[in-house]
Amino acid sequence: MTNPGPSLPPDTDAGPAELRTILADDDPLARRVIRDTLQAAGITVVAEAANGREAVELAAFYRPDVVLMDYMMPEVDGVEATRRLRELAPEVRVIILTGAADEDLGLRGLGAGASGYLTKDVELTALPRALRGARAGEAAISRRLAMRLVERYRREHAGRQGLRPIHSPLTDREWEVVDLLCSGATTDDIARSLVLSSETVRSHLKRIYRKLGVRSRADAIAAAERLRDEDPLAA
Questions:
Q1: Comparing 122 with 156, which gets the higher pLDDT?
Q2: Are 193 and 128 in contact (CB under 8 A)?
Q3: Which residues pair with 48 in a beta bridge?
């Protein structure tokens, strides 16, 4: 009987190629803690960035497998950096990290091209697995965010987006803004789509919030959906 050789330890990357990553975070201590965790798991950190602009430049140069991208950074935030990197090096996977759970931000990040969205309270030991999963084409997202994506898919494929309730406090233009909100568009995205200034879009959002009695984008989307549900003559 041949000797099968030693077995691999748990969570070892048995693939033939090492996983290469770039860390982008303006907090040096956070970078050090994450770097030590990843290197202990056999992942190579090829570079570190202190802002979104550096992250894009370094990733375009080194072409790592995955970039672990903080959201709150100077010059360019993580979502915009992800969008730019998607254009320059679409093969590079991005996982966005944020200090606070914000599912709307998560949807924006995924819409910009990220493969994952995690909060910084995630167990450090889960990060190597998340990076390896991203390289393999898996999404690194929470169950709650996955449910939001399912709900968004159902709304869009039910043909509800674009419906205008007959009895509604919103104008047609305001409904156009709401429809774009439902698709995960940012203020700048809405401005480009409707050929408006960002300031005009913000004014529309303020009026929408006031009319619907809400204070956030998520609540505005939910209130708009309730209006559509309550009005059988929506068209």
A1: 122
A2: no
A3: 23
